[in-house]
Amino acid sequence: MADKTIRVLLVDDHQVVRRGLRTFLEIQDDIEVVGEAADGAEGVARTEELRPDVVLMDIKMPGTDGIEALRRLRELENPAKVLIVTSFTEQRTVVPALRAGASGYVYKDVDPDALAGAIRSVYAGHVLLQPEVAGALLAQEDPGSGTGRGSTLTEREREVLGLIADGRSNREIARALVLSEKTVKTHVSNILMKLDLSDRTQAALWAVRHGAAD
Questions:
Q1: 79 backbone φψ class: left, alpha, beta (φ>0; ψ -120 to 50)
Q2: Can you tell me the distance from the alpha carbon of 8 to that of 110, in angstroms, rounded to the nearest whole number?
Q3: DSSP string spanning 69-129?
């Protein structure tokens, strides 16, 4: 992936924020800013038009907000990874954004180099959660919910689940377990179905809560 340029779309209603992000990201050798949008609706349209690899999305925007934009992209089955970049830290915004399909969540005061690392991380297929964000999600879960469902997982599925909790992409899991990516995708689908979960973020948190992660 070292020779692959990550194509990024900026979605934020503040022009000064977009300009600052663009200025920093354009000095990164492996990141290219391919476009901007000032609200969620425009962000969805531009994502469909430009097909970026990663979308940096604010949550609070006039009109269509970031959470609704995430839901629309999910309905469209757009493959872009969405990294939430926002100043809002409340659970009422954190949790819905991740439930809607965000691959990660960072705050606008994040160190610039850490932001570039976050973009690379979600592009690689990792789930990126700052500790307080993971805590917000865990606080929303019933500690006893789903415990019994773990017994339906095969040994291999539990291995895959543990690696998901470590933030590994399908490719990395395939390498670690000496499997094809197609086989890993099948295991991931089976895990989500058996645990009645909708995405990898929920799977990672389930693993942490129920002791399936190292």
A1: alpha
A2: 17
A3: HHHHHHHTT---EEEEEES---HHHHHHHHHTT-SEEEETTS-HHHHHHHHHHHHTT--EE
Query: Cβ contacts of residue 67 below 8 Å, gap of 6+?
Result: 59, 93, 96, 97, 100
The pTM of the full predicted model, rounded to 2 decimals, is 0.69
**Residues 23 and 49 sit within 8 Å (Cβ to Cβ):** no
Helix (H, G, I), strand (E, B) or coil at 37: strand
Three-state SS for 51? Answer: coil
For the record, the structure tokens of 98 come out as: 């991740």
* Strand ordering across the sheet containing 54-57: 31-37, 6-11, 54-57, 81-86, 104-107, 128-129
- State whether residue 135 is helix, strand or coil: helix
Contact 139, 91 (CB under 8 A): yes
Q: pLDDT tens digits for 94-151?
A: 778 877 888 888 888 888 898 999 999 889 877 776 655 665 565 555 544 454 556 6
